[in-house]
Design goal:
Helix content is 64%, strand content 4%. The chain is mainly alpha-helical. It has a two-stranded antiparallel sheet. A hairpin with a 5-residue loop joins strand 1 and strand 2. Helix 2 packs antiparallel against helix 3 and helix 2 runs parallel beside helix 4.
């Protein structure tokens, strides 16, 4: 039977994985300058004001993948939990489910694949780091 200290560390690690992973993913996407949308281009009109350039065909926006926040939360919990449980091979299942589940959307979304890859790698890195840190700390507890 595990003690309350172990349970508290595991729950804390899962929460840290979720929160740190979110913060790091957002930060990395900003550093990578991966836009969420293709914004319209602007030009100056006769009075000097900036106005959107009107074209005959509307500019397509770069769609965001829906549910990304929840997918990220669940993937970090699954990856961190798999490492803590001593079954890192389950990470392959997470990668497969996420990739196969998003494949149709990524085919249609064009530029969203860049956000998907960068965000996923940042998220996975944090989840693995928190999981490994927790595995290192658990044996030190009474």
């Amino acid at each position: 039977m595990i003690g309350w200290q172990h349970a508290a560390v595991v729950v804390g690690a899962l929460a840290a994985s979720v929160l740190l992973g979110l913060a790091v993913s957002v930060l990395v996407l900003r550093w990578a300058r991966v836009p969420e949308l293709i914004l319209p281009e602007y030009e100056r009109d006769a009075s000097g004001r900036m106005v959107p350039i009107l074209t005959s065909a509307p500019q397509p926006s770069r769609p965001l993948l829906r549910g990304g926040l929840w997918v990220g939360i669940l993937e970090r919990v699954a990856i961190t939990g798999a490492i803590i449980a001593g079954h890192p091979e389950l990470i392959a299942v997470v990668v497969a489910v996420k990739g196969l589940g998003r494949y149709p959307e990524l085919q249609q979304a064009g530029g969203a694949s860049e956000r998907f890859i960068i965000g996923t790698l940042a998220s996975f890195t944090v989840a693995v780091a928190v999981g490994l840190g927790t595995v290192a700390v658990l044996p030190l507890l009474p």
